[in-house]
Amino acid sequence: MNGFDYYNTRTGEIDSGTADNIAMWLLDTDYDGRSLFPRQVFFVADVMKDSLEKLAQNLKAEIDGGRIESYLGMVSLPFDAGSHKRAAVKIIDDRGIESLKIVELQ
Predict the structure, then answer these.
(1) What domain range includes position 100?
(2) pTM value?
(3) Nearest Cα to Cα of residue 71 among 97, 89, 45
């Protein structure tokens, strides 16, 4: 993922953001056209790693650092196309604005 576009209701224009503006994104690897069911959730902000470590301390739980690393960034984990042959990618930018893109899979 390199960035996103969204419709700005105040200006009536399309605004763009870069990957640096994305706080988190969700991937539904078998989108049915009706409901988004995120099978992978990624956090982009660097502060998330520290936040997850603090959460583990508060819950007195252990969080696998290697597993956390795989869910930080802009590249999804490998997946097979589901029966609907469609994926949905939802991003939430650093202002809380959400965008959704549907991708046809082979």
Answers:
(1) 3-104
(2) 0.76
(3) 45
